[in-house]
Amino acid sequence: MARPTLNGPGGRSTSVPPLDTADMQGLVSRAYGHLPLARYLLCEVADAAAARGWLGSVAPGVSTAARRDEGCGLVVAFTYAGLAALGLDHDALATFPRPLQEGMVTPHRSRILGDDGPSDPALWRWGGPGTPVIHVLLVIYAPDEAEVERELGDRRAAFAGALAEIAPPIEGILQGGVEHFGFADGLSQPVLKGWPRRTASVRPAAPPPPMKWEEVNPGEVVLGYPDNYDKPAQGPTVGGKGTAAAALPPAPWAPGRRHLGQNGTFLVFRQLAQDVGAFRRHLDEASATTAARGTPLSPQEVGAKMVGRWPSGASLVMFPGGDPGGAGTNDFGYHEQDQTGFRCPLGAHVRRSNPRDSSAESPAKSLISSKNHRVLRRGRPYGLPLVDPPTQPGEEESAERGLLFLCLNSDFERQFEFVQHTWLDNGFFAGLCNEVDPLVGPQPESGGGFTVPDTPVRRRLTGVPRFVTTVGGAYFFLPGIRALEYLAALGA
Amino acid sequence: MLTVRQAVFTVVAPIPHSGLAALREAVATIRHDPAGNELLPFGRFDIVHFASLILAEDLEPSPLLILELNADGTAPSCLAALLAGAGPGLDALFASSEGYPGHADLPAAKAWLEQHIVRPGAYHIGATGRTHDRIRDETRLHEAIQAFLDAEEKAGRLVGVTPATLRAGVQDFVRGDPSLAWARTSPPRQTSVARAMHWARFVGAIVAVLVLLPILLPVLFVAVVLLRLKERTDKVQVGQPDDAHVRRLQDEEDFAAQNHLSSVIPIKPGVLRMVVLRGVLLAINLVARVLAVNGRLGDIPSIHFAHWSMINDNRHLLFVSNFDGSWESYLGDFIDKASYGLTAVWSNTVDFPRTRFLAFDGAADGPRFRAWARAKQCSTNAWYTAYPAATMATIDNNTSIREGLFATLDGEGTAAWLARL
Ligand code: HEM
Fold first, then answer.
1. Are B138 and B399 within 8 A, CB to CB?
2. How far is CA B43 from the centre of its chain?
3. For B147, what's the count of Cα atoms within 13 Å in the CB-facing half-sphere?
4. A408-435 tens-digit pLDDT
5. What pTM was estimated for this model as a whole?
6. Are A475 and A276 contacting, i.e. CB atoms less than 8 angstroms apart?
7. Domain residue spans of chain A
8. Quick one: pLDDT band at residue A200, thresholds 50, 70, 90?
9. What is the mean pLDDT of residues A110-127?
10. Strand bridging mode A265-274 / B377-378
11. Residues 359..418 of B with a Cβ closer than 8 Å to A: which?
12. A275-318: per-residue pLDDT in tens?
């Protein structure tokens, strides 16, 4: 079969080598939506040799992108400290990207990620300067409560003596694809070019081609494949000697070395607490202030303006009049119908996190540049949903809830950090003045502004509080299966 | 109407090694509080838009102090103002440089500084024709209108109002405020004389090239062949920049709406590279004067002031830029929107990523170009911005608000003007 040929962002034609999905961890291909329960285990390496032994035993059972897990799913990822603790040598460690080496918490990174005030890493529950160093992240996905407990027990028995948990497991839940503020999430994702398109049991006549908004080169997520610049995404390398190294492909850019990153990727994990009570109160208040116009916005409309989609996920660009319900489609741009933001405000969360074709004068060039900053989101909510209205006063304060934000990318700085810094947290995004993302931005203590274009003149919402607080976070390397085996064989 | 003159230049002075210690201290004082320090309080000069100090210590034959100035007026008038207002500060910076007479001898000090002016080989000004004061005033105008609208809305006076009535209301508000009297008219961003002059140069250059083409063609042919040979073998940077170096640069970044980027890079040896670099800079400068007058350089909308110049006896290419937003977004714009021009310039300096035919590949190879740009970037030892909360987009928008305020507009124009508020 001919290799799929595609047009790179530079208009050049790239042929993507076949994607070795059997060597990729399952998180690359899916968010485990069929397994509603998840446990995130943060561990340290208690004994390096034992940890390598453990890794060798689990590596064959780690879920891969090539197959659907019958029972439970398992993801294994390492921090920089974790790779060092496993015994990876200094030469190899030095080939990891600086953000992974430094970790999520540095003064500059905190500044650009908005981790200040209540999100200060000093206050974090995990991953901060005052909490134990994290080495390994294990994620267990399971179909039900009984299975998750059984799986957790088995996994713990297997790593006993090798790894030690440094925090209680974090429990992720699925609530029908809706995040805690009440909006459908996970609708817009980059689609990797050349990804084998299988259809499960249901087989539509012809699988829909990926939309132009979604296609990126596979190297934007998976290391070793052409990225949007048509060059292989370069990951960490190791010295070429030994049988374990021989299983890894050579790294053409580093003669004599092997590509430890092949089929791996980098994982961002941030625990983002959502203040749902404050969010709802603010929607009510903001709605009340809009009444002075004579054309008030309902609380739901205010929320939709902030998100850029209706609760159902329907785009404000396609459905400016109201929520049509149903499953939100992703086939829309901004340039043609809504360059000025009268439908979807320029500062809305989805428009900031992916401006699509509207960031520059030319829609085509905008789309090319937007696509250089995509991340593959793999998070899910944690904490129980807040019933609306609360059955007891103070209920909202009594429990914490939020989003376990996970995303994959091949370049932390150009992708995740760029989205957070240059788009979400940027007070001057798209010509705006001193306002950050209304949904997730690091608002000043006195509250921030949010401009909603309207006729005859914009509405200006003020006093927008910080709804989302970072309470933990770390950067991880998510190795391919052969790389896991290489790590397990270190020192052998 | 006089043309607004703006000067984009550096003062470059060799510093003896013996003078470094004292100079580092002086620069640190300025860095700590660029607007208000006691040596060179840039904030007190309402002609200065952006300024920086770069102490390039590792150069041969001697270290250089580079004072970058982007200011209203001419380079000599700007230096005169600095001498008059901060003479002792300039003494602290240049005292150890050979022949610097000290500000007490004003004419001699001025002459010395003027001798050390380096003019850009190519430059860009984002807010064409807008002085420091005008940018500040137009920001105030927008803020005043914002407050007016918010008050009108609160008082229920926007209920059922038509666009035309609303605009008339804003006009009345501005007419009623004597402190905004200046906003009733608006000077052009660029006079037709200035525009005609730049176009004449541009067209003249094209004609000259066409006329000389028969002579140039064989020369060009040889040059291209030589260039291709060099391009195959020129050394390129391998790997990532030093981590500590990048950390130091990042420690200085992302405090204001804008950031600063500076680099001093050795030019590749040989006559060919020197001639090519000069030619490319000349061409870019001609094109920028006629095409980049609406705030955008090519497709990049975020540059306030930037320039390249050759310094240190043409051994090094200096680049300084004052741009909106993050380093990542700036470099992303370079790569996605301006890679040909940048490659044509920087491929003449050492370690640049592999190129083809001068302008191809190079900066288009995003990851390699970013690594190179970081490795070659130098720390800006002190940096001043006169408006840390204004981007090119807000500056241009504020000017457009003023321009449209009392202009004759149809229905569509009125709606578009109101959308700017
Ligand atoms: C608690 C925090 C957050 C909440 C509640 C939230 C919620 C949402 C919702 C409701 C959507 C629309 C559904 C969709 O398009 O898939 C969305 C889209 C998106 N969000 Fe978030 N988000 C959060 C944090 C973040 C963060 C931290 C980032 C990145 C740094 C991010 C990046 C994105 C992206 C890239 C999209 C897709 C935009 C598009 O392609 O159109 N989000 N988010």
1. yes
2. 18
3. 7
4. 999 999 999 999 999 999 999 999 999 9
5. 0.95
6. no
7. 21-271+473-488, 275-407+414-470
8. very low
9. 97
10. unpaired
11. 364-368, 370, 389, 391, 393-394, 397, 415, 418
12. 999 999 999 999 999 999 999 999 999 999 999 999 999 999 99
Residue of B160, B250, B389 lying closest to A108 (CB–CB): B250
Q: For residues B396 and A452, what is the distance between their CA atoms, to the nearest angstrom?
A: 20
pLDDT of residue A8: 39
List CB contacts (< 8 A) between A361 and chain B. 296, 299, 301
Q: Return the pLDDT at A1.
A: 30
Q: Look up tokens 């974790």; give the residue.
A: A82
| B349/A393: higher pLDDT | B349
Query: How much distance in Å is there from the Cα of A407 to the middle of ligand 1?
Result: 11
Check pocket membership of A272 for ligand 1, CB cut-off 6 A: yes
Q: Please, what are the domains in chain B?
A: 6-119 (3.30.70), 132-188+391-419 (no CATH), 192-385 (no CATH)
Q: Is the CB of A23 under 6 A from ligand 1?
A: no
DSSP one-letter code for A424: I
Q: Is B80 on the interface with A (CB under 8 A)?
A: no
Facing residues of B157 across strands? none
Cis amide prior to B61 (ω within 30 degrees): yes
Residues from chain A that touch B161, judged by Cβ atoms under 8 A, are 456
- Rounded average pLDDT over B104-125: 97
DSSP A34-99: T--EEEEEEEEES-HHHHHHHHHHHGGGS-BTTS--SS-EEEEEE-HHHHHHHT--HHHHTTS-HH
CB pairs under 8 A between A and B: 124
CA A190/CA A219 separation, integer angstroms = 12
User: What is the arrangement of strands in the sheet containing B377-378, beginning at the earlier edge strand?
Assistant: B122-125, B303-311, B316-324, B258-266, B377-378
Check if A443 has its Cβ closer than 6 Å to any atom of ligand 1: no
Which tokens belong to A122? 């000093």
- Chain A closest-CA separation from residue B156 CA (Å): 5
pLDDT for the residue A146: 96
User: What is residue A2's predicted lDDT score, i.e. its pLDDT?
Assistant: 34
Q: Confirm or reject contact between B236 and chain A (CB < 8 A).
A: no
Could you identify the residue written with the tokens 């095409």?
A: B291
Mean pLDDT of the residues in chain B = 94
Residue A86 in contact with residue A51, Cβ under 8 Å? yes
A361 to chain B: nearest residue by CA?
B299
B174 neighbors B183 (Cβ within 8 angstroms) = yes
Sign of the Cα pseudo-torsion (B250, B56, B259, B34, in order) = positive
Best residue in B253, B303, B326, B343 to probe A by mutation, most A CBs within 10 Å?
B326
CA distance A109 to A420: 11
Residue A12 pLDDT level (bands cut at 50, 70, 90): very low
Q: Which atom of ligand 1 is nearest to the CA of A185?
A: 13
Q: Do B421 and A457 touch (CB under 8 A)?
A: yes
Mean confidence (pLDDT) of chain A: 91
Option in B254, B324, B367 nearest A229 (CB) = B367
Position B313 pLDDT exceeds 80: yes
DSSP B251-305: HT-SSSSEEEEEEEEEBPSSHHHHHHHHHHHHHHHHHHHHHS-SS-BTTB--EEE
State if residue A353 touches ligand 1 by the CB under 6 angstroms criterion: yes
Q: How distant is the Cα of B279 from the closest Cα of chain A, in angstroms?
A: 27
**Model confidence at A6: pLDDT above 70:** no
For residue A199, the model assigns a pLDDT of: 43
Locate the chain A residue with the closest alpha carbon to B150. Answer: A460
CA of B86 to the centre of ligand 1 (A): 51
Q: pLDDT tens for residues A216-235?
A: 999 999 999 999 999 999 99
A186 lines ligand 1 (CB under 6 A): yes
CA-based nearest residue in chain A for residue B164: A456
